[in-house]
Design a protein that fits this description.
single chain; 5 helices; about 0% strand; elongated
C-alpha cells in the first residue's frame, strides 16, 4: 500500500501512461463520481458517496498543488499561479460542499474537472 496519494499517483504514472493522460483520466474519474452523486442525491447512501467523491477530488487537486509548488516545475510561473488559484477555489468549494451539501454545488467542480481533462488531452506533451 502507498503511504500517500502522491506515491500512488507516481506509481500509476510510471507504470502505465504519460503524466498528462494520467491526470486527465483521474480528473474524469472524479467528475464521474461527482455526477453520480448528483444523479443519486436522494439515495440511501448518498452522504457516504458524496463524502468519498469529495475526498477523491480533494486528493487529486492536492497532488496537483504539490507538483505546481515544486521549484523544478517546468510550467511558466503565471500558469502555475493561475492553477494554484484554481486549486484554492476547488478546496473552498469542496469544504463548502462538505459542510453544506447541495447537488448544485457539484456542477462547477464537475465542469472544471472535465475542462482541465479535455485540455490535458488536446495538447501534446512538451518535449
Amino acid at each position: 500500500m502507498y503511504k500517500s496519494p502522491l506515491q500512488a499517483y507516481q506509481a500509476i504514472d510510471n507504470a502505465s501512461m504519460n503524466g498528462r493522460e494520467t491526470e486527465a483520466r483521474v480528473l474524469m474519474d472524479a467528475a464521474l463520481k461527482l455526477k453520480q452523486c448528483q444523479q443519486n442525491w436522494e439515495s440511501e447512501n448518498s452522504h457516504d458517496q458524496l463524502d468519498a467523491a469529495l475526498r477523491y477530488n480533494q486528493k487529486i487537486w492536492s497532488v496537483f498543488q504539490v507538483e505546481l509548488e515544486r521549484e523544478d516545475n517546468p510550467l511558466p510561473l503565471n500558469v502555475r499561479q493561475n492553477l494554484l488559484r484554481l486549486i484554492a477555489f476547488m478546496d473552498k468549494r469542496i469544504f463548502e460542499t462538505m459542510a453544506f451539501p447541495e447537488p448544485e454545488k457539484l456542477t462547477m467542480m464537475i465542469q472544471i474537472n472535465e475542462n482541465i481533462a479535455a485540455g490535458l488531452r488536446s495538447h501534446p506533451q512538451a518535449a
